[in-house]
Amino acid sequence: MKKITYLLIFLAYNWSFAQDFRFGKVSKEELQEVNNPKEPEANATILYLNQKTYYDYNADDGFVKITEVHKRIKIYNKDGFDWATEEIRVREDGSKREDVNSIKAITYNLVNGKIEETKLKKEGKFKENVSKYWAMEKFTMPNVSEGCVIEFEYRIKSPYISIDDMNLQFTIPVKELEISVRIPEFFNFNKYVNPRATYIPKINNSVVHRSETIVTKNREKHTSTNTNFSNNKWEFNENQTEIKLSDVPALKDEEYVSELNTYRTKLIWEYTYFKDVNGAITNYATTWDEVSKTIYDNTDFGAQLKQDNYYKDDIITLIKDVKTESEKINLIYDFVKSKVKWNNYYGYLAENGVRQAYKEGVGNVADINLMLTSMLRYANINANPMLISTRSNDVALYPGTGGFNYVVAAVEMPNDVLILDATDKYATANVLPIHAVNWQGRIVRESGSSAWYDLTPKEPVREVVLLNVKINEDLSIDGNVKHQMTSFAAKNFRSKYQNYNAEERLMAVEKDKGEIEVSNYEINDMDDVYQPISYTYDYNLKSGIEKIGDKVFITPMLFLALNENPFKQAEREYPIDYIYPFNDKYLVNIMLPEGYIVESMPESALIKFNDSDGEFKYIANENGKMLQFVISLDMKQHFILPDDYVGFKGFNQMMAEKQTEKIVLKKI
Length: 668
What we know:
Elements: H1 2-18, H2 28-32, E1 44-58, E2 62-75, E3 85-93, E4 96-97, E5 99-111, E6 114-119, E7 125-129, E8 134-140, E9 149-158, E10 166-167, E11 174-184, E12 187-193, E13 204-221, E14 225-248, E15 266-275, E16 281-283, H3 288-297, H4 302-306, H5 312-319, H6 325-339, E17 341-342, H7 354-360, E18 362-363, H8 365-378, E19 383-388, E20 406-413, E21 416-420, E22 440-444, E23 450-454, E24 461-471, E25 477-485, H9 487-497, H10 502-510, E26 516-524, E27 533-541, E28 545-548, E29 551-554, E30 576-577, E31 582-591, E32 596-600, E33 605-609, E34 614-623, E35 626-635, E36 639-640, H11 645-659, E37 663-667
Helix pairs in contact: 6-8, 7-8
Organism: Gelidibacter sediminis
Keywords: Signal
Signal peptide: 1-18
């Protein structure tokens, strides 16, 4: 009986201890924890997250939104150190600014059995201006080490009624999470859980009563001035949302997930209307047409398109002898690319203004692409800005200006639309930076109309590889490779290797190819973005052949073969997104050595996925001393849903097995 009593006392003690999340009450047990019991691979764990959003009231400012955040995080190893920096995005639009205050932060370490505390100092706090509308308040915790616990809290005061998305899931697990939102009945919101999320939380909604005492001041002037104060009680209801979660799983990345944030569990808020005490309603819910018009009417958007005096002479000179519209477009496009460098800031509103960006040679996305649109219009090209939400910004569930964070130029032609982004020198028409290829863009016309346009790439991206193989008498291999790429593949190659020197490029080619020595490596048309890019090299390979007795075994694709299936999970939570359709083709020519004949070789095969969504062809021919293979993968469907994952995994498994089949040569 005593043992049972002691056990109950022990369990009760640990339960009460585990629930003590008051600031500063970090325990030795938390510091001694070496991994997350449920997700031992995690580099860190959010032990506790509490976020409260409510609206204070005062006579001068009216309702002011307050958000209070309290986090406690356990860091297990050096890979978890990134969690020691907290980033808080704040709006700074003119005089309406959000303010971060009441920061309190401590790092806890266990030293010789005792808890040592290190408080955040002034030098650990800093601010980064993202644009003239946004800033990032940051602080980095001091004395961070493996096994430490960090804890911080802060308060955000905001004049804005709208509520930002609330993340309920992170790339590390969460042990305990509490969210509380109280909204006065005058402000009406729709709220949604991200429909793409796989972890769905329980949300508790209720109505609570609130009472405010309003102090009014009256002055009466007779023979002297008297000031009288009176208190009035104001009673109203608030809509309360509460979420309490335990053991929230980490948001885990998977192969070919283009943007993990798309699948994060989060609570999304839409401010729909304001209803005053007399019942009068002001609507804030809107349509995409109204959103587009609001953005166009902003002086940092539409007015920028009308300015042309600063570039007139340059454009007249540039296109004076040009005959065709396509030549005009390309000349102006390349001119802007070379004239103004992107400062890596997103935004659909001009930051410095197009005139200043032109003069200084640097600007944000809007500075550059609104300038491009304006120049194209000046050259009598039917160009309009296109608003986009980047992959990191996700896809909006409801109309609102926050649904966009990027702008490009769109040239509307009789049978086509050319989309141009001058922030990237290797981008071409309809071949945008990957971050901008996201669902749909909205064309905003000068006439006031607007329309959606599908950003999904239509044409397949083509890669062709010619692999020549000569097997020497000592069973080493000499040969050469020519690899040609178009469209996104060419752009990605140019972007990746633009700053590599010759040695770095050579090392990149030799990587993961076994005992290979590469020579005569050349890249053709690296800077001519209107041509496919190609590279060639010679190679000597000492590890490509396996000899057993009088037989020789060789894989036709050598170091280019898909050696294993990239998809190993039994199930998959998120879609596979290749971003664009593609066609890869390999032409392999193998010259046999003297004294050997073919005993067996892989047979031709055709493997399909979902009838025509994907097709793998393997064609093998023997022509005397020459073996020839044509191997191709044609993926018409770039987006594979989780329901199709098992079939697609099997498709890749069969491809990998086919590509690793061997030719058997016999000595004669």
